[in-house]
């Protein structure tokens, strides 16, 4: 390729960026979506993806806690738990992003709603589908691993000994901010429209890594929520006082973190 061709190609790329316009914000109440099959297909995708995510992740958590039992190799270790969560999200986002957006997390869905990427109707239905999928996924784990599930805490999120309620809430806010900020950056339509063609294919990778590193940081504090559906599913099936005592943290923290991330991306980075 000659220097002239390179210059022409670069000029065309800059022109495309200059002409780029953001897609219009989603309607607040778009009831017309209720008549479209694509919405229900997306709900099924979110339900199944969250079910699979909770099955894999909670089973891994139970295996990790089982490590202290007589058989030393029955668990995957601290790092394995973080990898399990991050890798499963990477796989499921890759599989479902073209159908539902691959949220698999009410906090992500709420953040996209705050950023005017989703209507209120789709937001509420997504969150219901995700929570139902989470409950079913944990239910499968409980059915398969009933004794270790009941004796090892059911994978429920709790504030660890030595940490305050405020510290746990802050950890959930910051952890969810990192995740949702990564989601907004990785899926920015301006980036996917103007950068190399591999960006849409690779977008699940930073999201999965964000989940991985946040788990490394916050497992010792709260067991890492950053996903209200994950916390709800485990709490419903375990259904003990310890699981419900501070459960509000795992909704309030992620929703605050998602809101801050959405506003930061919209008003500061793209403002």
From TrEMBL:
Pfam families: MIP. GO terms for molecular function: channel activity. The keyword Secreted does not apply. It is a multi-pass membrane protein. The chain crosses the membrane at residues 43-64, 76-95, 124-145, 165-186, 198-221, 248-269. GO terms for cellular component: plasma membrane. The keyword NAD does not apply. Keywords: Cell membrane, Membrane, Repeat, Transmembrane, Transmembrane helix, Transport. It comes from the Eukaryota. PANTHER family: AQUAPORIN OR AQUAGLYCEROPORIN RELATED. This is Uncharacterized protein.
